[in-house]
Specification:
Blueprint lengths: L1 H6 L4 E5 L2 E5 L7 H17 L2 H10 L1 H10 L4 H5 L3 H28 L1
Antiparallel strand pairs: 1-2
Length: 111
């Protein structure tokens, strides 16, 4: 049964403004949008100013798509979230999902 824990990882709980938010593993149907948004964000982090990153977060539908798919937050809450918080949460979602993939790859490599 422990293999199923890797295939279906449990959500990670973080706190956003005192509210418990579950970060869920990216689902296959959202994988392309997740990869695109994560790639854009990581590229911007290395090249853009904080103001440019926050502006991207405000105008990008990708952030809403990924946070909606990979967190327990409603679209209403995500839309009203400050850009700085949305970007931080998006980075946390990327990190947690990277850990999920890392755990799965380590399990396969150990066999």
């Amino acid at each position: 049964m422990s293999d199923l824990e890797i295939l279906y990882p449990k959500p990670v709980i973080v706190r956003v403004n005192g509210r418990r938010v579950a970060i869920k593993p990216v689902e296959f149907r959202h994988f392309e949008a997740f990869g695109k948004a994560a790639g854009e964000l990581l590229t911007m982090l290395s090249q853009a100013s904080p103001e440019q990153i926050y502006a991207w977060a405000q105008r990008s539908g990708a952030l809403l798509d990924v946070l909606g798919a990979c967190t327990s937050l409603s679209a209403w809450r995500i839309k009203r979230m400050p850009s700085t918080v949305a970007v931080q949460l998006m980075l946390q979602v990327v990190e947690v999902n990277n850990d999920f993939f890392g755990q799965a790859l380590a399990k396969v490599a150990s066999r």
